Amino acid sequence: MEIGPYILLASLEGAVTAAVLALTAVGLSLVFGVMRVVNIAHGEFFMLGAVLAWWVANTVGGHPAIGFAAALIVAPVLVGVLAALADMTILKRLNYDPERTIVATIGLLYILQQLTLMTYGPDARPVEAPFNQRIALPWIEHTEAGWQMYYPWGLSTTSYKLAVIGAAAAVLAGVWAMMARTRIGLLMRATQADREMALAFGIPVEKVYALVFGIGAGLAALAAVLIVPIQQAHYLMGADPLLLSFIVVIIGGLGSLPGTVVAALLIGLSDGIISVFFSPTLAKILATLLVGLVLVFRPRGLFGTRAP
Amino acid sequence: MLRLDHIDAGYGGGRVLQDVSLEVDAGEIVCLLGRNGAGKTTCMQAIMGLLPLMAGRITLAGQEINRLPAHQVPKAGIGYVPQGRRLFAGLSVAQNLEIGLRARGSGRDTLEEVLDLFPRLRDRPDQPAQTLSGGEQQMLATARALCLRPKLLLLDEPTEGLQPSMIEAIRRAIVQMRDAGVAVLLVEQRVDAVLSVADRVAFIENGRNGEVMQAEALRADRSIVERYIGV
């Protein structure tokens, strides 16, 4: 196989990573943007999504597609409700103080992680994909007889991976539409712009915060449900998405949704390509280096605006 | 309409306001005058419920509002034009007004009345608020507060940094509201501007009540103004 098909293969793998990462990071970015809360427990909401997906799929039984479809709805909703409760009982009491909420969410991280270990256990468990046809991909090559299309050996993806990319894109479009086009999105953006003025104009800021925290966690859980047929559910799986989400959100600009999506594509695709051609470790090193450069030369991120 | 009864308020334990009392009647413009840091803005924030009251009570048309959660206070009928305008950045002119309309469920007719007062805003509903000129931003901040159909209008330095034609437009809107029976509490640094619109002037000094006078009397004898805010 020449280099071209390899790049296509690596890009497809990278696009799956990017899709899941974009969903997770947009959740983190939304919470930071509106609430100015740095949610260290975000990766645990991701992990809970995956673990609940396994639990739901196992409880429902029957055809894998039925269990998966149920998990796709139940897991993000449960995680979102849990996060909203955590907001009302913990973050609200701290008055959303930026520093104390960091400490509180670190505590939340360990509580969620250890509770999962105590109940779900230390094993990594798979969830079966609802469908998983292998799709061979064509490549074109110039030969003596002109351009020819053929199927290189090993160049393939699965229908499920393509569906993950499509589903993530659809959900991201939905989040954008909610923020830009709906009444509740307007209230969220007003709260983001100026919390005190939002109160002075009758916006129930505490309810908006609980909703935003729930939606942010729900997005992470949804991303996890999508990836769990490829990756397996494990109680320590939240660390990587947390780190990568922070990398993406910092590069994209804290609180900027388009910036977050662009940065997720950048990091996801480069991670895929560099991992295939060199090593996954080099990919992480370069991503971290990029964060360092962004922080030095463009501290607000590529798409960030000035914090109020 | 508005009544402050011996209130204490401040930030994080420190009392900026001590034993302040004040009354504003419907159809009256009361101006709060005092030096920088005397507690004028703190007073407005306390009325809006953005600062906790440490003592005293605040009533609006007989309803005690200082026990309400902050987001319920404007729903009692208070429109707030804060210092520095503080529009919702990133939201358009129309969206800023929609937030105001939503607060007390005002309808399309309220919006039309408000836009009649500030025709410049009618031409640019989709422009992002932060790209308006200073004067237009002040108009929008005032219009946003009027969208609540307020019984009480709080204005904190509404003419700060504006050119004379804009000041006149804001002044006209304030007087029109007063004439329509709205109670207006105004914080302003420019004494001449105050004396031209105010019915009464309340001085505030180091967070405590000073004298309360008819504006008429101040126009005749301005020496007392010098005593409170002269340098």
Automatic annotation (TrEMBL), chain A:
Keyword Cell membrane belongs to the record: yes
The molecular function terms in GO held by this entry are: transmembrane transporter activity
Compartments it resides in: Cell membrane
Keyword Ubl conjugation listed? The answer is no
A biological process term (GO) from this entry:
amino acid transport
**Listed Pfam families:** BPD_transp_2 (PF02653)
Residue ranges of the TM segments: 6-30, 37-57, 63-86, 159-179, 208-230, 242-267, 273-297
Against InterPro entries, the record matches this protein to:
ABC_transp_permease, BCAA_transport_permease
What's one GO-annotated cellular component?
plasma membrane
**Keyword terms of this UniProt record:** Amino-acid transport, Cell membrane, Membrane, Transmembrane, Transmembrane helix, Transport
Q: What membrane topology does the UniProt entry give?
A: Multi-pass membrane protein
Alphabetized PANTHER family for the sequence: AMINO ACID ABC TRANSPORTER PERMEASE PROTEIN, BRANCHED-CHAIN AMINO ACID TRANSPORT SYSTEM PERMEASE PROTEIN LIVH
- What's the family? Belongs to the binding-protein-dependent transport system permease family. LivHM subfamily.
Q: By what name is this protein known?
A: Branched-chain amino acid ABC transporter permease
UniProtKB/TrEMBL annotation, chain B:
Q: For this entry, list what GO says about its biological process.
A: L-amino acid transport
Which stretches make up the ABC transporter domain?
2-231
The terms under GO molecular function for this entry are: ATP binding; ATP hydrolysis activity; branched-chain amino acid transmembrane transporter activity
Q: What keywords sit in the KW lines?
A: Amino-acid transport, ATP-binding, Nucleotide-binding, Transport
| Highest taxon listed in the record's lineage | Bacteria
Among Gene3D superfamilies, the record links this protein to:
P-loop containing nucleotide triphosphate hydrolases
| InterPro entries in the cross-refs | AAA+_ATPase, ABC_transporter-like_ATP-bd, BCAA_Transport_ATP-bd_LivF, P-loop_NTPase
Q: Could you confirm whether the keyword Nucleotide-binding appears in this record?
A: yes
* Keyword Transport in record: yes
In terms of Pfam families, this protein maps to:
ABC_tran (PF00005)
What family does this chain come from, according to its entry? Belongs to the ABC transporter superfamily.
Write down what this protein is called. ABC transporter ATP-binding protein
Which organism is this protein's natural source? Roseovarius gahaiensis
Q: Taxonomic lineage of this organism?
A: Bacteria, Pseudomonadati, Pseudomonadota, Alphaproteobacteria, Rhodobacterales
